[in-house]
UniProtKB/TrEMBL annotation:
Domain ArsA/GET3 Anion-transporting ATPase-like: 17-287
A Pfam family reported for this protein in Swiss-Prot or TrEMBL: ArsA_ATPase
Gene3D superfamilies, sorted: P-loop containing nucleotide triphosphate hydrolases
Protein name listed in UniProt: Anion-transporting ArsA/GET3 family ATPase
SUPFAM superfamilies for this protein: P-loop containing nucleoside triphosphate hydrolases
GO molecular function: ATP binding; ATP hydrolysis activity
């Protein structure tokens, strides 16, 4: 089995100022991020946790009525060690709007914010959520350096469709906004496009018929107003990638002991290695265990013997349930052994499945204890 991921040592390392939890959807990234943040705060770190999950369950578990784009203090977290915890939830459109307002003159900002193409881009374009999570991370990092309000930022990343989406989002969005096609829409008959203006006009005319003249006009208006901000997006994207690969940051890949989740975790581990980004290790959530060292086969044998010797229906059902659980445990451990063999050197911690949902600070602390528990 892989080396153990020492979560408490990771939290205690003051050189680590950013912990990024990444992985596929449904593996417990949000609760893992929150549990790490609570544990770090109660160990003396000044923490802000940025979540992407819009569900109110996390806010309620932290003792807050709701979360929004502004960090809110979590008063119920113990401060005896000198730490603190703020929590916030990414508002994708609000973050994008703030970028525009902060970087464009007021008249241009109003023109952009009211543009229909921008409104669609800022709410539903593929990759925008991932990019805005990184924009917000950059803002928090800058603020932490300026005023020392936080010494640790924990980020719950969006559930990427593939392992590449999260790391590539800054480049994808800046490429879209600075793309050749949008430049052609803006000035199809000038500069290098002049010689192809006849052919382009045919395409442009066809697009008008398919998409409608108003959509094309909205895009052109948006590009014209947004042109001055293109360089800023590229620069921020580059700074974001520099932060992600610096010694300030470490990544935690979150998975479950299921084939698809571990395959996605492998993609993340490999990509982080290729990009030379610092990986702390892998958290495997909801691992099943049993206090009874009775195999599935033995349980089924005893159940069969009991079923033919009187009324033992309750005992037989219990033995069959235990056999099913043991088979699940065997399947999970087989998958984890394969993962460990294929990714040697990657640190791993297994988190036992809790009997109920994480719904309050007590269960977040319990999850934190399990995260730090040595296998």
């Amino acid at each position: 089995m892989s080396a153990w991921l020492d979560v408490d040592a990771m939290i205690a390392d003051r050189d680590r100022k950013i912990i990024i939890c990444c992985g596929s959807g449904g593996v417990g990234k949000t609760t893992t991020s929150a549990a790490l943040a609570v544990r770090a705060a109660e160990a003396g770190r000044k923490v802000v946790v940025l979540t992407i999950d819009p569900a109110r369950r996390l806010a309620q578990s932290l003792g807050l009525g709701e979360l929004d784009n502004t960090p809110r203090p979590v008063a119920e977290v113990g401060r005896s060690a000198g730490g603190s915890l703020d929590a916030m939830m990414l508002d994708m459109k609000r973050t994008f709007d703030d970028v525009v307002i902060r970087n464009a003159p007021p008249a241009k900002a109003d023109q952009i914010l009211n543009n229909p193409f921008y409104q669609a881009l800022s709410t539903s374009f593929s990759g925008t959520q991932e990019y805005m999570a990184m924009e917000k991370l950059g803002q928090l990092h800058t603020q932490a350096q300026a005023d020392g309000r936080w010494d640790l930022i924990v980020v719950d990343t969006p559930p990427a469709r593939s392992a590449l989406d999260f790391l590539d989002a800054p480049e994808h969005l800046s490429s879209l906004l600075d793309g050749r096609f949008l430049r052609m829409l803006l000035a199809p008959a000038r500069g290098p496009f002049k010689i192809m203006s006849v052919g382009f006009n045919l395409v442009y005319s066809a697009m008008n018929k398919v998409l409608g003249a108003q959509i094309i006009t909205d895009v052109k208006t948006f590009v014209t107003a947004f042109e001055a901000l293109f360089g800023g997006f590229r620069n921020r994207a580059q700074r974001t990638l520099e932060i992600l690969s610096s010694d300030d940051t470490t990544f935690v890949v979150v998975a479950t002991a299921e084939r698809d989740a571990l395959r996605e975790a492998s993609f993340f581990v490999d990509r982080l290695s290729e990009e030379r980004m610092p990986l702390a290790g892998v958290v495997v959530n909801r691992v099943h265990r049993s206090a009874l060292a009775v195999s599935a086969e033995r349980s089924l044998t005893v159940a069969e013997e009991l079923s033919g010797s009187g009324d033992h229906r309750a005992e037989v059902a219990a033995l069959q349930r235990h056999a099913s659980r043991m088979r699940l445990i065997e399947r999970e451990q087989t998958l984890l052994r394969r993962f460990s063999r294929s990714r040697r050197g990657v640190r791993l911690t297994q988190v036992e499945a809790l009997p109920s949902d994480v719904c309050d600070l007590v269960s977040l602390r319990e999850l934190g204890d399990l995260l730090a528990e040595q296998d």
